[in-house]
Amino acid sequence: MTASTLRPQNNKKLRHFLDLKDLSAAELRAILDLAADVKLCQHNRRYPLHPKQPLAGRTLGLILAQPSTRTRVSFEVGMEQLGGAVSVLSPSDMQLGRGETIADTARVLSRFLDIIVLRTGNDDDLRELAKWSSVPVINGLTPVSHPIQILADVLTFEEHRGPISGRTLAWVGDGNNVATSLIEAAALLNFTLRLATPEGFDPSESAIKWARQQGALIETMRDPLQAVKGADAVITDTWVSMSDTDAERRHMLFKPYHVDKALMSHAAPNAIFMHCLPAHIGEEVSQEIFEGPHSVVFDEAENRLHSQKGLLLWCLGQE
């Protein structure tokens, strides 16, 4: 009997975290509020809302099909700080690397683990894992979306500039997976999003269509000056990602999207600069902006830890 002849798990009650568009606005806000609470607890070394180890006895499976710094360390440290254990795996460590199906892997891991994070180069693998898993599955990054990054971004913005609702954010550069998740967040959290991208690197049409159907104000354009004008935050990402093979072409096309002092001067006077890292100084951003007073990139990186702790608590019903 093969996996295809068996029925998948009934996941109606599971709190998967695959894409932001799968959540309600209230659910996303609940995760962000939990993140803010656990950050306050950690910084004050006190735990007013939760026992010191709310996830004691729980185990996270962290499957990394791609190299990772922030995703791996933040989930490992976060789970351990909440009292749980972590098992870090790569496909080559598992029978996946020898042909075992994702369906069978999901059902086996569900017997061992309480929650799974998958970082993968194939979005279909994430969907298949969640379909067959009987424990919550978290999207740790796919080529299609990167929702855990946006949790940290929103937490960072609100720490520095207050509620994000009604504000304007500008995305400059590649309309990539991070941009897709940011588009979905705009619909749920009611902020305006302008995206300036070169031709051929437009953001996801389906994500924009969905967000606009929810009432979001999403503007797309070629001119980065138009996108940044009066914005409360300017966000960018690397021009060349791990799976990209056209680096020379990308560098040529993205040059006008370099975030420097001249471009940043068109944003609101107190605008912040954000970048999910790793950054390539001199390419998508200048040294002056990356290290300057507008930059909150290392607060943003730290908030991967706190936002993911909030996410783990929410997925496991520990509000």
Tell me about this structure.
This protein is of the alpha/beta class and 319 residues long. The protein has 2 domains: 3-146 and 302-315, 3-Layer(aba) Sandwich (Rossmann fold); 147-301, Aspartate/ornithine carbamoyltransferase (Rossmann fold, 3-Layer(aba) Sandwich). 41% of the residues lie in helices and 13% in strands. It is built from 12 helices and 9 strands. The strands form 2 sheets. A 5-stranded parallel sheet has the order 7-6-5-8-9. The protein has a 4-stranded parallel sheet with strand order 2-1-3-4, sandwiched between helices. Helix 6 (177-189) links the parallel strand 5 and strand 6 (192-196).
Helical percent range? Answer: 40-55%
Strand-residue fraction?
5-15%
Radius of gyration: 20 Å
Taken from the alpha-carbon principal axes, the silhouette is globular
Q: Can you count the helices?
A: 12
* N-to-C SSE string, H for helix and E for strand: HEHEHEHEHEHEHEHEHHEHH
CATH topology of the largest domain: Rossmann fold
| Top-tier CATH class of the largest domain | Alpha Beta
**Given the helix and strand composition, which structural class is it?**
alpha/beta
Give me the count of strands. 9
